[in-house]
Amino acid sequence: MNSQIYFIDDEPHIRDSVSQALMIEGVEVTSFPNAVEALKHIDTQQAGVVVTDIHMPVMNGLALLKELRSRNPHFQVIVLTGYGDVKTAVEAMKGGAYDFLEKPFSTDSLLKAIRNAEDKLALLQENIWLKKELDMQTHAGSKLIGHSQAMVQIRRALISAQTDLPLILYGDKGTGKRLCAQFFYDIHNRNEGELVPISGFYFSDLSSEEMPQKLRQLLAQHPNDTLFIHDAEVLKDKQWQILTETPLGTTKLVCAALSLPSTITGKIQSIALPTLDQRKNDIPALYKHFVRNACSRYQVQPPRITAEELETVQQQTWPENIRQLRQFAELRALKSPQFLSADVDELQQAQAQTMAQRLDYFEYTLLFDALKRHGGRLKEVQQELQVSRKTLYDKLKKHQLDKSQFKDQ
């Protein structure tokens, strides 16, 4: 772990020699001549390791310890005491210091104390992340499936993202940008506001003079909401500039694009989303999740998914990423296991499905859902879908659907 290390001592020769010794050992350290100066510059939002002398004018090390711990209890503070000053050392430990060293001390002993403090800080921060992730996985909002390193980092980035800066999610088609936007919203807007999707095409035809006014109107209409601008890759450079430089007020802004624009000048935060090929270990969990969801939606018995089936799915390439895997999993929920290898091969033959293929898929699921709800009674299905009897029979034949499979038990 590379924590921020701070060293505070009012004696210049000690400060310089310790800083130099630590830098030789590869430890980056920021030093200060006194506690007051340190508090002006230390970012207490981000806990680090502080090594401080006890006896300093104006504010001593114990007072600094107390102030740091009040601002952020995760700071790991190592105090430097005089030789044999047991009373001060005990007082510092009771005040929350991680460790103490007696002067004079060796570089090795200081280095060891810093490394141990970093380990404890890393453990504390890991526990914080785990609690936050557990909270997100147990509440009723969206979930980002997967335990790959890439997904762990994405969840943490979304949890810690600032809400007063535009967030840009970028990656290939089907990598889950909408899911990530929903996850961001669930974390930061759980009790207030709405997630408001807006197409990038809404802005793309606006002139540089029109867009600022339209954007301000949107922000005024949606206080406390989260605006989700999808297909943002259609925006021009000037439009990106306006979008990222306009003050957001209480509104949050998430943009989804295929790539991160290189011309952005405003202050932003961005998260790159990996393809499924870059997170293959997550595919089995995603596949099972999508199959279960489809079974629940279509009210069918969940199929038994074997280890061999999971391995087959994991070894495939998915050009359209999560979107394509979800579609395949939905077909799996509605068909028998025998379809698996043939349909996987079919999916891989086309790098992207045609419009006709997408319509066929929609048509199949529409028919299946209607047959399921009406117990295979074709007259009721025909009335609901408003098609002729001949058209309905032709569609059933085309998709190899048998009404007897859906008869009420």
Strand content: 5-15%
Radius of gyration: 29 Å
Distance between the termini: 60 Å
* H/E topology pattern: EHEHEHEHEHHEHEHHEHEEHHHHHHH
Q: What strand line-up does the widest sheet have?
A: 2-1-3-4-5
What is the strand tally?
10
Shape annotation: elongated
Biggest β-sheet description: 5 strands, parallel
Structural class: alpha/beta
Poorly predicted runs: 347-352
| Average pLDDT number | 85
Percent of residues in helices comes to 40-55%
Tally of DSSP helical segments? 17
Domain tally: 3
Q: How would you describe this protein?
A:
The strands form two sheets. This protein has a five-stranded parallel sheet, with helices on both faces. Strands 7-8-9-6-10 form a five-stranded parallel sheet. About 1% of the residues have low confidence. It is built from 17 helices and ten strands. The protein is α/β, with parallel strands linked by helices. The longest helix has 32 residues. It is elongated and about 95 Å long. α11 crosses α13. It has three domains: 123 residues, 3-Layer(aba) Sandwich (Rossmann fold), CATH 3.40.50.2300; 126 residues, 3-Layer(aba) Sandwich (Rossmann fold); 129 residues, no CATH class.
Key features of this structure:
51% helix; Rossmann fold; alpha/beta; 3 domains; 17 helices; 10 strands; 409 residues; elongated; five-stranded parallel β-sheet
